[in-house]
Amino acid sequence: MLACAVAAAVVLQAAVLPVHIATPFKPDLLLIIVVYLALRGSFQAGTPLAWLLGLLKDVYSGLYRGLNAFTFLIIFLVIKNVADRLYAESGFLFVVTVGVATMAATTCNLLLLLMFTQTPGIAYSMTAGLIPHLLTNSFAASLVVLLPGFSRGHETV
Question: How many Å apart are CA 3 and CA 128, to the nearest integer?
């Protein structure tokens, strides 16, 4: 099931959405999968999967190889350590966590790019699209919550 979700996310994110949606309004579906893994998956399986999902994103949309892999891994580790103390089955928590992870991914990518590259204007271009990207990811996460396999119990969002 996870492999099908990743394959569908890659096809949508790499081939379908760029044709029909402007850049700041494209959801980061792989980041949403990483957040789902962090909230619901195990530490042993999720850590390499978060790294591989970041590498997969770097392959089809990244200029710097390993940037998203490192960011996804850090986000997974932080969320997984916090999720053990929370009620991780909540749909509201999932949407909020995706929003926080979107801001964290943008911040982490920006800091890494500022440290290791000399790209003029990178801070402006990344922060200009943060709000639309945050809203789009939160909306996509709210759609994931509505999927039948998301809730294990009887929960309303």
Answer: 33
The tens digit of pLDDT for each residue in 2-22 reads: 889 889 998 998 888 888 888
**Would the pLDDT of 151 be above 80?**
no
Report DSSP letters for 23-42, one per residue.
GGG---HHHHHHHHHHHHS-
Q: Does 90 or 100 have the greater pLDDT score? A: 100
Q: Is 145 exposed, middle or buried (0-12, 13-18, 19+ CB in 10 A)?
A: middle
Best CA proximity match to 75, nearest among 95, 59, 56, 51:
51
Using the structure block, give the residue that is written with the tokens 């995706």.
98
- Residue 18, CA distances (Å) to 36, 72, 98, 102, 110 in order: 23, 21, 21, 19, 22
Q: What is the DSSP string of 73-121?
A: HHHHHHHHHHHTTS-TT-HHHHHHHHHHHHHHHHHHHHHHHHHH---TT
Which CA distances in Å does 100 have to 3, 70, 76?
A: 25, 17, 12
% of the chain exceeding 90 in pLDDT:
59
* Alpha carbons 122 and 77: distance in angstroms, whole number: 26
